[in-house]
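Predict the 3D structure for this chain.
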Amino acid sequence: MIIISTFTSICGVVSKYAGMVMTDMFENIPKLKHINIPVEVIFVQEDELIGVDESVEIYNSIPEEMRYGYDIINGCKHNDILENDELIKVIKRFLEKL
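Done. Predicted structure below.
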């Protein structure tokens, strides 16, 4: 599994821009604690929507034996990471570990 610039909880993201949110149907931390496949976590240093601190929380919630990589990519923002050449290098490196 490759996680790219995702959030710990959608409520945390939305509440920054829209105020209080009542329910959170997209809580990632509880789900990741039970994952049993290799995971690469990739975040964008200049991400204007998701803080890099969330990447640390996400990475730390993954069982240690499933943590295959943690990378922070520079030179892009949240919505243009897929166009970044460094992303391809990180993904290739992860796939080579499998």
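The domain at 2-97 is CATH 3.40.50.1820 (Rossmann fold).
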